[in-house]
Amino acid sequence: MAWLWVILGVALLYFGGELLVRHAVALARRIGMSPLVVGLTVVAFGTSAPELAATLAAALGGNPQVAYGNVVGSNIANLSLVLGLAALVHPLRTKARFIRREMPFLLIVSLVLYFVIADGWIGRVEGVLLFAGLLAYLTYLLREKEEVPDVEAEFAAEYARTGPAAWISLLGIAAGVALLTVGASALVEGAATLARAWGVSDRVVGLTVVALGTSLPELASALVAARKGESELVLGNLVGSNIFNVFAILGITAMVRPIQPDGPGIVVDLSVMLGLVLLAWPFLYTGLRLGRREGAVLLLVYLVYVRYLFAA
Fold first, then answer.
1. What average pLDDT does range 238-249 have in this prediction?
2. In this prediction, what percent of the chain has a pLDDT beyond 90?
3. 223/279 Cα distance (integer angstroms)
4. Distance of CA 263 to CAs 35, 129, 177, 202, Å?
5. Mind giving me the DSSP string for 280-302?
6. φ, ψ of residue 209 in degrees (nearest 5)
7. Among 121, 142, 167, 246, which has the highest number of CB atoms less than 10 A from its own CB?
8. Which of 184, 118, 142 is nearest to 126 (CA)?
9. What pTM was computed for the model?
10. Domains of the chain
11. 257 CB-near residues (< 8 Å, 6+ apart)
12. In Å, what is the CA distance from 27 to each residue of 167, 220, 277, 306?
């Protein structure tokens, strides 16, 4: 029965996220946002919506370990599993200036998260500070619009369409949020039941089952974009989603209800997350080719990490 709740939750989160992203993009284009800004903000935040829904549901339901595990596990999955599989589908190379600007930002965000969580408490003050970081990040993105023409063209080809009327987009966004809400509750309930059945901690299930389920929108969009050879879309979405996960999801959740992750494994989780940022840094920051060999290494890191979680 627990697996049915997990599968139902993942399905609702996936379709809710897709619905939210599609109509949010259409609404953003209708009010005049450029395709590049839409891709770096609306899409990145929209694909992180399942993480937000599941993290809030876990925190409000008294499962702080699941809430913590979902955010950290999603960031780990994005830079290992998702990026690795995308590179296996099609080697990635970027000319985008925004990647070189965002990679140092992602490193700083990861370091901030390391020190915020390392003491075992994320209170409302930390939540406000993280959310303030999100506002600063959005301001920065909205002001820095100049980009390489090829990159502008890639985003325009994907996000230049205005779509349906505004009222239809608003209904689509509302429907997406409703599906995310129900799906998050089902996923967290099923995951907590699985944790008890498997004899593992809520933290482990949050880092694996819940994080993987909420990362499906990033995985689906990355594989589709990689198959088309759209490296900038893959990298922009993943880097942006990881930044949103920390600033928006942890920030909003901690403001609603403080999170208290505990256990000796937390330092390992945060170290793996930070190590993946440092591993991806030379490829994404310098524009070097992230080929199938590098993708296989990233995928191997994820598999070894998951094996460690269930063996510990």
1. 89
2. 16
3. 21
4. 43, 24, 33, 11
5. HHHHHHH---B-HHHHHHHHHHH
6. -65, -50
7. 246
8. 118
9. 0.89
10. 2-311 (1.20.1420.30)
11. 59, 60
12. 9, 22, 32, 39
